[in-house]
Q: What sequence folds into this?
């Protein structure tokens, strides 16, 4: 009898331990583009600060630009997933930041020297150079994964065609959770002409840059403003917010390093308090903790976030 009881107790303890180790995923879901537009239209009542996981949120065991890494990032916070697109030799849209495979995979040389099938022979490496079992994903697989899970900010590398990427976004019907990254006003104009319903991340580091975008026919309700990699004056935040525009601040680099060195300073908390709405970060674990605290203190919630 005692043996059976101990066996039962062991099984129950193992089950509870397993349950405790299960990670909870925090997903963002929009049923249509109007819900996305409303979510991103800035107002004091509507604001929901978020983290953008730069290159998907790599960390030990999880390589950059990898679906498994994207999924892991959602266990920390509801996420915007930023990722990069390149061409394989046979013009398959694959997810990769560098021109060469060497840093992030077991492959060697230019990614454009290999067909997609050949790329599947390689495994991805994490930022410490450790090989994982994960493979280079396609844009198709990322778009399919993202439905009902995360907002996407889509970065195009090495002459990748906006038209081709937008065609894929429409094919997978993910207009309601996609934002296309542009670096110039002319690129933003091209994207808006190709797909007037898509949201665009555009560089706006001074008022004249927003006016330039508007002069090219891009309305404020299709713009998310990237304000740079150092916090701008509050005046710029106010100007953009008064125009209903959500802002992205890039913390990857110096700001992330400052926060890692000085965790007690609550750097990310203060950045969103001062006007940043989305933080594009490599330090998602620390940023997530501080944004959770900020949203809790300000009683911020959204029906689109679980």
A:
């Amino acid at each position: 009898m005692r043996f059976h009881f101990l066996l039962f107790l062991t099984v129950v303890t193992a089950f509870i331990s397993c349950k405790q180790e299960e990670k909870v995923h925090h997903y963002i879901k929009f049923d249509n583009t109007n819900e996305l537009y409303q979510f991103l239209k800035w107002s004091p009542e509507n604001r929901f600060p978020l983290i953008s996981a730069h290159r998907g949120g790599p960390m030990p065991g999880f390589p950059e630009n990898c679906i498994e890494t994207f999924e892991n990032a959602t266990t920390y916070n509801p996420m915007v997933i930023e990722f990069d697109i390149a061409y394989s030799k046979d013009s398959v849209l694959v997810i990769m930041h560098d021109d060469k495979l060497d840093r992030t995979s077991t492959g060697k040389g230019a990614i454009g020297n290999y067909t997609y099938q050949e790329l599947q022979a390689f495994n991805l490496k994490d930022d410490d150079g450790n090989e994982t079992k994960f493979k280079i994903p396609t844009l198709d697989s990322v778009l399919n994964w993202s439905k009902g899970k995360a907002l996407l900010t889509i970065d195009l590398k090495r002459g990748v065609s906006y038209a081709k990427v937008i065609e894929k976004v429409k094919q997978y019907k993910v207009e309601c959770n996609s934002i296309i990254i542009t670096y110039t006003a002319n690129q933003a104009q091209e994207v808006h002409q190709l797909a007037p319903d898509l949201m665009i991340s555009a560089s706006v580091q001074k008022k004249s840059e927003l006016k330039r975008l508007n002069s090219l026919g891009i309305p404020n309700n299709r713009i998310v403003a990237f304000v740079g990699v150092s916090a701008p004056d509050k005046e710029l935040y106010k100007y953009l917010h008064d125009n209903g525009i959500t802002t992205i601040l890039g913390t990857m680099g110096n700001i992330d390093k400052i926060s890692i060195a000085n965790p007690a300073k609550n750097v990310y908390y203060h950045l969103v308090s001062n006007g940043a709405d989305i933080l594009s970060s490599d330090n998602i674990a620390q940023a997530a903790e501080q944004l959770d605290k900020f949203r809790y203190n300000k009683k911020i919630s959204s029906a689109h976030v679980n």
In short: Residues 24-97+138-297 form a domain with the TIM Barrel fold (CATH 3.20.20.190). The chain has one domain: 24-97+138-297.
